[in-house]
Amino acid sequence: MIKGYVYYSISLLLKMVRVEKSTIRKIGIPLLVISLGVAGILPGWLLIVRLNSNEYWKRITPELVQMDSDILNDMIYDVQNNDYGVYSILAIRNGFVVTEWYDELFHKDYLFQVFSVSKSVTSALIGIAVDRGYINNLNASVVDFFPDKDIAHLDPQKESITIEHLLTMTTGLHWPEYYPYGHPENPYYAWKASDDHVEFVLNRTMIAVPGQEFNYNTGATHLLTAILERVTNMSTIDFATRYLFGPLSIDETLWAVDPQGVACGGDGLFLCPRDMAKIGQLFLKGGKWVEKQIISNNWVEISTSSWITFTVDRGYGYQWWTYPSDNCYRALGYGGQAICVFYNLDLVVVFTGMNLNRDNPSILLENYVLPATM
Description:
The protein has about 375 residues and is α+β, with helices and mostly antiparallel strands. Helix content is about 40%, strand content about 15%. The chain has 14 helices and 13 strands. It has helices spanning about 5-15, 20-40, 45-50, 70-80, 115-130, 155-160, 165-170, 190-195, 195-200, 220-230, 235-245, 275-285, 295-305, 360-370; strands at about 85-95, 95-100, 110-115, 255, 270, 290, 290-295, 310, 315, 320-325, 330-335, 335-340, 345-355. The chain has an eight-stranded antiparallel beta sheet, with helices on both faces. A three-stranded antiparallel beta sheet has the order 3-5-4. A two-stranded antiparallel ribbon has the order 6-7. A hairpin with a 2-residue loop joins β1 and β2. The chain starts with a helix and ends with a helix.
């Protein structure tokens, strides 16, 4: 994880401490790091990493990675003593756990349904499929992947919907998911009750030219997993296990499927908080995990860039919410599930919970986590 950082740090420090490269070869990187750490030249947390390299999520005193433990403890006290509806909080800085808390009903291995955080994971799988040549063109027509479906209202406009339009939620399909769930105008529950989830989405009428208007659409993400399964001839969970979950040692998970067995890419994934953090950490490090490139850095960059801009402070990428003014992007799910990546702070923060009345992740980040960074 930090091998590159060690070499980079040492290269910057060679002149300062007058250590010859021959000395490095003689005593080795680990001993040199220990020596420099004891001398106070390298940060203490780096020494801890080298001595515990097989413990990926090691707990550390927050001050060692420039975070204020008092403020973080105040956050936990606030959540415990007020009705936030938060079930877990996990913060990782510089690759270390600085705070980890679970409501008394839960624990670190509990599998939470992460709802729309699933969308960001589905996007990552599409990126891997692109990297590995299963998908050659994001501008490929979506309907061409479903020749077996009898698609209603098929016209040139619908035929022009591409994979990229699915990723950016700009399909042009009539899908008013902005109404509350359960509202008769929101198609979500009717879609979930349908016999064929893929065909239900494809049969929707067009109300805009694809690529022109953002319209949040969980069904669009479902089409992404359907396409993934067709081009790879694998189930989504099998593909994820081979190329994403397996390399990240995500061993326990669930992924709900539709009546045809297609993974519910928009809302059906279950993960424990530490594994949610692994997804965030993977993206924070440009798609690399323990020196192995799992997703290309190019995909990480383009998928977390603002393809849609709502305000100067908020946008949308390839199934990631972007916050340019905070140097942050987030995977967000119904009720307060979140993976928040602050790339300038080397910080990943995970929340789970259930509160429909307020945005707990944003509140806790603004009131506690970000003020705790020093």
